[in-house]
Amino acid sequence: MTRIVHQGGAGVPSAGAGPVVGLAVGRGTGPELAEVFERVLGTLTAAHPAGVEIVRSPRLYHSYVSLRAERDIARIRELTAEDAEHYERFCRARAEGGTTAVFRTAINAQSLYLVRRRLRAVKVDHLTAGEKSLLLVRDQAQGFYTGENRHTEGEVTRTLTFSREITEAVVGYALARARHTWPDGRLGRIVMAYKFHLLDGAFDAWVAGLADRHGVRIDVFQPDTVNRNLLAHGLPDRTLLIAGNEWADIMHVMLLDRFGSDRQENRCTENVCLEPGVAGLVEYQTVHGSADDLAGRDLVNPVATIRAAALVAERHAGCDGAVPATEAALTALAVDGVGTPDVGGRHTTTGVVDALLDALAPVGAPRVGDADAALAGGS
After folding, report:
1. What sign has the CA pseudo-torsion 262, 248, 25, 372?
2. What is the pTM of this model?
3. Tell me: the pLDDT tens digits for 202-237?
4. Cα–Cα–Cα angle for 9, 11, 15, nearest 5°?
5. Beta bridge partners of 151
6. Which residues contact 80 (CB under 8 A, 6 or more apart)?
């Protein structure tokens, strides 16, 4: 049984006995994908003896398109700050209540990165190509994306920060995640892609100290050097790639093509919070954006949302087999040509989800009392 709760405030910890999952919805196609998430998670966790509770944030967060409709910079800044503050409170309240997973549809990036800075988030994606494997850890907690704006007439000044403390947290988490991903301890290479040459030698000095402390070799490169190496000879198997968001946000889709053999429309990923007050909270999202032009047309591709629901069911509600069962069903749909127009299909969002739920093999009863809280989104 899946119980859906629409909160009256920013977040009151749930008193339910089963796992609790947070849900945050943005404008554009957000409401449609929230319904997809609820349907798929409900089906995958139907056998849970205590039920799974979905707690939805009461605020419908802005997309960039909906903000631009305001046509007033001061109002856009105000709404951006309000969205960020509300979503941060929602995440903190969920974490305090014991929730380990939140699914969020796309929202305005400026609001989102304010929250990621405050919660010290990293985005994690494990990419594979044949027998080769790459673990991408995107530093979303510092740098240009997390800066603050100051407006004067005809000018915007953006102030950003890099810190040794956050760099230590990001590298420490990345190394721990690599050990979880490749438990035999074999690691091909550790590469960091940052614009470090703009920071007076401080950043690479911090990394050198961290490498000595952890007893590993870490190669720090400018992004163009990483691109050149990627084009010339690829990256070694089991590369741990820790990257500043200035490069990784742009290159993610290219790495998916090179290592993931997947389209961003079909991909979900996770953001792990490292700030102590919310440590262990994992936010799942689609890689694609809010697709405001498709809102209300029942045409948005639901595959990434379906995959996010499967990951939440398996990792956070203890439903073993949810991910392979979902992948098998998605494969069956692809063979039958079931898909939305963006991938060459002729089906609606609802049609794809209906077919997916019909094709899903039964998932066994979940592990009672094990919500995978310690995984923090393990690969």
Report:
1. positive
2. 0.90
3. 999 999 999 999 999 999 999 999 999 988 888 889
4. 115
5. 156
6. 62, 67, 108, 110, 111, 114
